[in-house]
Amino acid sequence: MGPAPRISVVVPIYNEEESLPVLYREVQETLDGRGWSWELIFVDDRSSDDSRAVVLALRERDPRVKLVCFRRNFGQTAALSAGFELARGEIVVTMDGDLQNDPADIPGLVAKIDEGWDIAAGWRKDRRDAYLLRRVPSWLANRLVAAVTGTRVHDTGCTLKAFRRQVVKNLPIYAEQHRFLPAMSRSSGARVGEVVVHHRPRRFGRSKYGLERAVRVLLDLLAIQMISRFSHRPLHYFGLFSLPFAAASLLFLFMGTVNWRTFEMVDEWPQFVVFVFVLFLLLAFYYVLLGLLSELAVTASGMHRRRVLDRILSELH
Hints:
The protein is elongated. It folds into two domains: about 5-230, Alpha-Beta Complex (Spore Coat Polysaccharide Biosynthesis Protein SpsA, Chain A), CATH 3.90.550.10; about 235-315. The protein is α/β, with parallel strands linked by helices and about 325 residues long. The two termini are about 25 Å apart. It has ten helices and seven strands.
């Protein structure tokens, strides 16, 4: 394998055969011009064109080019995750394979990392996409992500980002969660900075994404927010779930012991009231017990994460 390179560039591809030679040449010119050691990892998400053959031809000419091939289409997030697993560079850069991201922006992202940031997120300030179908939904999504996660990133949908390898190496992502990497990493203490990057018009083919992806992104955002907050205080969440059942049980306790007409104590509870009272009381206890078990699981998981962090820090030193 040789010594680890300074830069690993991870590029998910799906039917980008015309763009790949141009992208390789631009990456080569940019990184060789800086004198950096690098590797270029293409992850083929089961393309139906000749993308795989094009990358293999590039690989024959330059061993710094790597290729991962999926057996079926898994999506961009899975492709990035596979690239992270293979990346050996000190800094991992992600970018699209359609040439809309400019490799000339990589040095600016790397400089941001060298300043002490853990993540440098690209900001397509002058975006070259359709206004109503791409830019407006993106603007709304960025505002929603910022409001929900508290991570102030102008352009969460921009794939062009740079990460310290330790940040993404063991970060589990799935579905459409690649766009939330800054927010997910920031919750663990990572420092997130932004760099204004170029955004070029598409030269070949057409976009692989439409408005239908917005629904999946919204659901993933809710899942991430729930998991991130739940993992810190699970007993509080389950305690909130138990409160309505506890209140309902107290209500039926009152209904079973007091005559609604005379407000006098009754001698015998109606069977229906007894059944519902016991049911709601058991549900309240059930959620409290789930919260306690979750606290134990989170505590054990935290001990495991601390051991992993200690190992990472020892590797860094």
